[in-house]
Amino acid sequence: MSATTSYYVPAQSRLPILASISLFLMAFGAGNMLNDSGAGTPMLLIGAVAMAVIVFNWFAQVIKESNKGLYSTQMDRSFRWGMSWFIFSEIMFFAAFFGTLFYVRTFAVPWLGGEGDKGVSNMLWQGFAAEWPLMNTPNAERFPGPGGIINPWALPLLNTVLLVTSSFTLTFAHKALVHGGDRSTVIKWMWATVALGVAFLACQGYEYYEAYNHYGLTLQSGIYGATFFILTGFHGAHVTLGTTMLIIITLRLMRGHFSAKHHFGFEATAWYWHFVDVVWIGLFLFVYVF
After folding, report:
1. What pLDDT digit, counting tens, does each position of 249-259 carry?
2. Which of the four pLDDT bands, split at 50, 70 and 90, describes residue 271?
3. Per the CATH hierarchy, to which homologous superfamily does domain 72-289 belong?
């Protein structure tokens, strides 16, 4: 990183407007796909591929600028604040879904069962048993409940061990880099973290297969199935993104990037990965266990 105090302003780029167009295609395609429009899936895929290409080129440009020493300490602070606010937005994103789960379990389901001030809604579904997880839905003909639930002490517990362990291996890599340790040691710990992330995704994929084929637990199996897959699915998407980031950082380490004093790209990825791990612990407790 350059010792200059000037704030680097890059040249004009088409990438921001192209990214906006790609996001629009993804959102529009997803909306059409949910409404069974034939053009929805292709549009979503085109937008996703375009976004991946744009992000790759955008980040490659940032890496080149950093390696050329164009960024000052003020720019470094901007990156840190930017990543901090991004993670805060992700916290609010998951807080909304956890809030939905809390509202459904604490208020909506008991009301349907006849409890509380709004318990008159029980008149719509007389005889409905309010219990969680919701195995028997009020409208079982249209939204049949799941035939079973995932055992929290099997794959979910294994996935918890994998992610918690990955936080330790990533921390070991970070400490080795900060204290000027052997770069090969840093890289080994990073590949171990990547392997744990991939193992988590493999286990979650197998869990989804079991849920759909042996438990009847799907997105259509009532509010329990919907909240289960929305929370775990979005988390899985974040793990996929985090694993990709870890791979890129590891490849950069192998190319000699980062030093003991200047390695914010590494730190930003570590922040994101630890955030993903903490979210999973919340999921394990409130989706699987309680």
Report:
1. 999 999 999 99
2. very high
3. Cytochrome c oxidase, subunit III, four-helix bundle (1.20.120.80)
